[in-house]
Specification:
Rossmann fold, nine-stranded mixed sheet, 16 helices, about 50% helix, about 15% strand, elongated
C-alpha cells in the first residue's frame, strides 16, 4: 500500500492535489494543519480493497490464521473507521481541523506503541452513607415540587382551554340557534343558575319560534317544581309539623298564618301550638299573642324532654304546629335542634322556611345544613320582598323539595297561599322583565358567562 503525503497552503489546495493524482475515490488517512499550510495523507481506494482482501480469513482453513502484526491490524481497523470518499474538494473549518489533528495524533500513537490498559482501582462501595441519603431526599423533594408545579400548570391550561371551547361553542349557538341563546338569556335574567339554564337551554326543541320555546320553557320549569295538590295534604290530614329555618325567615309569622287557616276551617279545639324559641327576647310572646287572638293555647319548651312531655299531653289534637328557634345554618345548634325533633319517637314533619330574598348560594347552604335528618317540604316566604325568585326555584328544583305554601306579606292569615307550580314559573320570568338594565345580560356577554361555569355545576338529577 502506497501512502502519499500532500502539502498545500490550505486544505482546499491540498485536496485538489489529492484529487488530481489519486482521483475522486481516494481514501483520506489524515487531514491536519501544520506550520505553513495543510498536510493530507492519502492513498488509492484500490490499495485499501487489496489490503482488506489479503487480511480476510479463508473459509476452507480450519485452523485460525496467524495473527497479523499489531501495527497492520490496527492500521486496517483505523482505515476502515476513517474511510472517506473524496467526491468533491471542500475546505475544512477551524473546528474540523482541530478534530482531525487530535484524531491523527491518537492514530499515530496506536501505530507506534500499543497502549497497555492500566488496571482500575475499585472504589469503595460506601464512602459516606449520610451524604448520599441526604442528597437523594433533597433531589426527591425538588422533583416532587417540580411535578406539582407542572401539574398545576397543566390544570390551568386545561381550564383555560375548556373555557375557550365553551365560549366558542356558545358563540356558535348564538349564530346557529338564536332561540336557544334567547332562552338562556331569559333564564339567567330570571335568577336561575348558569348551570341549570345551560342544561335546559340545550334541550329546547329545534325549529320552534321564540314564543313557542318560551311556552316550552315555562312548562319545563313548572313540571320540575313539586307542590301539594290541596290543603288536604297538610291541614286536613293533620299531624305534627315543625317549621324550621335560619333567623329572620318568618317562621313565627308563617306558623300564625297556618294556625289561622286551620282554625277558620276546623276550629281552635283541634289545634295546638308549641314554641321552642326561648333564646330570643320576647320570642315566644309573639306566638302567644297570635294564639290568644285565635283562642289556641301555646306551649313553650326548652329541650327534648319538655318537647316529649308537651307532645304527650297534646296527643289528642288533630294538628300540632311547632315554631322553632331561628339560628344560623352554620351554628351547631342546628344539629341539636334537628336531633331534638327527630328523637321524640313521633313522626314530626320538618318544613323548611326559605327566604325568597336570599341568594341561591345561601339557600343551598341552608338546605345542606337542615336536610341531614330529612326534609318533608318547604314554604317560600317574603315573596313580596324579592326582586327575583329564579335562584329560589333553582335550589328547590335541584333538591327536589316539595313546596307547600307561598307567603307574600305580614297579614295574618291573608298573605299565605297554596303553592302553584305554574304560577311560580310564570312569576319568575315576569319579575325578570321588570329588572333594571344594569342587571340584564346582553347576548354578547353570554359566551363569557358560560365559559366560567364550573364543569361540576350540574343538577342532582335529570329534568322531568
Amino acid at each position: 500500500m502506497n501512502i502519499k503525503r500532500y502539502f498545500g497552503k490550505n486544505s482546499r489546495e491540498a485536496l485538489n492535489m489529492v484529487k488530481q493524482e489519486l482521483g475522486a475515490d481516494a481514501v483520506i488517512l489524515s487531514n491536519r494543519a501544520v506550520e505553513g499550510g495543510n498536510e493530507i495523507l492519502a492513498f488509492r481506494e484500490e490499495d485499501m480493497a487489496n489490503l482488506v482482501a489479503r487480511n480476510k480469513p479463508k473459509p476452507a482453513i480450519v485452523q485460525p490464521a496467524p495473527a497479523a502484526p499489531a501495527a497492520e491490524e490496527t492500521l486496517v481497523s483505523m482505515l476502515s473507521r476513517n474511510q472517506r470518499i473524496l467526491k468533491t474538494a471542500q475546505p475544512l473549518n477551524h473546528q474540523e481541523l482541530q478534530q482531525q489533528r487530535s484524531q491523527a495524533t491518537r492514530q499515530k500513537t496506536v501505530l507506534t506503541a500499543p497502549q497497555v490498559a492500566k488496571p482500575q482501582v475499585a472504589k469503595p462501595l460506601v464512602q459516606n452513607a449520610a451524604k448520599p441519603v441526604h442528597e437523594q431526599v433533597k433531589q426527591t423533594n425538588h422533583t416532587q415540587r417540580e411535578m406539582a408545579h407542572m401539574m398545576q400548570e397543566l390544570r390551568s391550561m386545561r381550564g383555560a382551554i375548556e373555557s375557550q371551547l365553551t365560549e366558542m361553542t356558545w358563540t356558535n349557538i348564538q349564530q346557529r340557534d338564536p332561540v336557544k341563546s334567547s332562552m338562556l338569556c331569559k333564564m339567567i335574567a330570571a335568577g336561575f343558575s348558569a348551570g341549570l339554564a345551560r342544561q335546559i337551554a340545550e334541550k329546547v326543541p329545534a325549529d320552534r319560534t321564540e314564543a313557542e320555546a318560551m311556552k316550552w320553557l315555562h312548562s319545563v320549569i313548572g313540571n320540575n317544581i313539586h307542590t301539594i295538590s290541596d290543603e288536604q295534604q297538610m291541614l286536613d290530614q293533620g299531624g305534627i309539623y315543625a317549621l324550621i329555618g335560619p333567623t329572620g325567615v318568618g317562621k313565627t309569622t308563617t306558623t300564625a298564618k297556618l294556625a289561622a287557616r286551620f282554625v277558620m276551617k276546623h276550629g281552635a279545639g283541634k289545634l295546638a301550638l308549641i314554641t321552642t324559641d326561648s333564646y330570643r327576647i320576647g320570642g315566644h310572646e309573639q306566638l302567644r299573642i297570635y294564639g290568644k287572638i285565635l283562642g289556641v293555647m301555646v306551649h313553650a319548651v326548652k329541650d327534648e324532654a319538655d318537647l316529649r312531655i308537651a307532645l304527650n299531653e297534646l296527643k289528642g289534637k288533630h294538628t300540632i304546629l311547632i315554631d322553632t328557634v331561628g339560628v344560623s345554618q352554620r351554628d351547631r345548634m342546628v344539629t341539636e335542634q334537628i336531633a331534638m325533633l327527630s328523637n321524640t319517637g313521633l313522626p314530626i314533619k320538618k318544613i323548611l322556611c326559605m327566604n325568597a330574598t336570599s341568594s341561591g348560594e345561601t339557600l343551598a347552604d341552608v338546605i345542606d345544613a337542615y336536610k341531614r335528618r330529612g326534609l318533608d317540604g318547604c314554604i317560600i316566604t317574603k315573596l313580596d320582598e324579592a326582586a327575583s325568585i329564579g335562584s329560589t326555584l333553582d335550589v328547590i328544583i335541584r333538591e327536589r323539595l316539595k313546596v307547600y305554601y307561598v307567603a307574600n306579606g305580614q297579614r295574618v292569615p291573608e298573605d299565605i297561599h297554596l303553592a302553584n307550580n305554574t304560577f311560580l314559573a310564570h312569576h319568575a320570568f315576569k319579575m325578570a322583565r321588570k329588572k333594571s338594565e344594569q342587571f340584564q345580560f346582553r347576548d354578547a356577554e353570554m359566551p363569557f358567562l358560560m365559559a366560567n361555569i364550573a364543569s361540576n355545576n350540574k343538577m342532582s338529577g335529570d329534568l322531568a
